[in-house]
Write a structure and sequence with these properties.
By secondary structure, this protein is mainly α. It has 2 domains: about 140 residues, Ribonuclease iii, N-terminal Endonuclease Domain, Chain A (Orthogonal Bundle); about 70 residues, 2-Layer Sandwich (Double Stranded RNA Binding Domain). Helix 2 packs antiparallel against helix 8, helix 4 packs across helix 8 and helix 8 runs antiparallel to helix 9.
Length: about 240
């Protein structure tokens, strides 16, 4: 009885490099960055997984993100900058960067990982993104890696600030609404735009049947937070 065919990713390393304009002359290094140990176990020709590159990329990200925060937020104290850096390099955020880049299309995983939904797991997307940064640093230099990371940070800055400066505007809005016996705010996504890898959601929030705020973001959660913040600002000036 023939064995099941070995799964292969949708996109080759060369195709990924072209799509994202990645500066890789040595595709072996990029291939290694995309290779999970489960893939190595099923492919004798694969010499190494991405775990060492993940370690290096983690260190590069800590430095680059810290420097970016230092330069962008001169008014912030050390403790606040540390908290912001932790938020930007946490697993969920780095996985979000991986989704923006659609790294899942090129991740080299074992068949079991694929069947378990590994292409969408935060921990694997995060690890692949970190390994990509490590490989980019080795292929070029810190300046090229910095430029690449900065482009992602600049694009997410607005959503990030909403999360950091207003930890839970939805709870605050609900407390205000219920204290006035107006019920629980209701959130509704009214528009989705942009390409699949860079969706923009528009959400409106209603209280007692009336629209009191709206917001946009790269996820429904971020857009809902922005809508709640907009509502709180509107209420403040009424």
């Amino acid at each position: 009885m023939a064995s099941d065919p070995v799964w292969e990713p949708e996109e080759t390393p060369a195709e990924l490099a072209i799509r994202l304009s990645l500066p890789f002359d040595d595709l072996r290094l990029l291939t290694r960055a995309l290779t999970h140990r489960s893939y190595v176990n099923e492919h004798e020709e694969s010499l190494s997984d991405n775990e060492r590159l993940e370690f290096l990329g983690d260190a590069v990200l800590d430095f680059v993100v810290g420097a970016w925060l230092f330069n962008h937020y001169p008014e912030k104290a050390e403790g606040e900058l540390t908290r912001m850096r932790s938020a930007l390099v946490r697993t969920e955020q780095l996985a979000a960067f991986g989704r923006v880049l659609q790294l899942n299309r090129a991740m080299r995983l074992g068949r079991g990982e694929v069947q378990a939904g590994g292409q969408q797991r935060d921990i694997l997307l995060c690890a692949t993104f970190e390994a990509l940064i490590g490989a980019m640093y080795l292929q070029t230099d810190i300046h090229q890696a910095q430029k690449f990371i900065h482009s992602l940070l600049d694009n997410t800055k607005e959503d990030f600030l909403i999360q950091q400066d207003n930890q839970d505007p939805k709870s605050s809005l609900q407390e205000w609404s219920q204290s006035r016996q107006l019920g629980i705010p209701r959130y509704e996504t009214i528009l989705t735009s942009g390409p699949d890898h860079d969706r923009i959601f528009t959400v409106q929030v209603m209280i007692d049947g009336k629209t009191v705020g709206s917001g946009t973001g790269h996820s429904k959660q971020i857009a809902s937070r922005a809508a709640a913040l907009n509502a709180l600002e509107t209420i403040k000036y009424q």
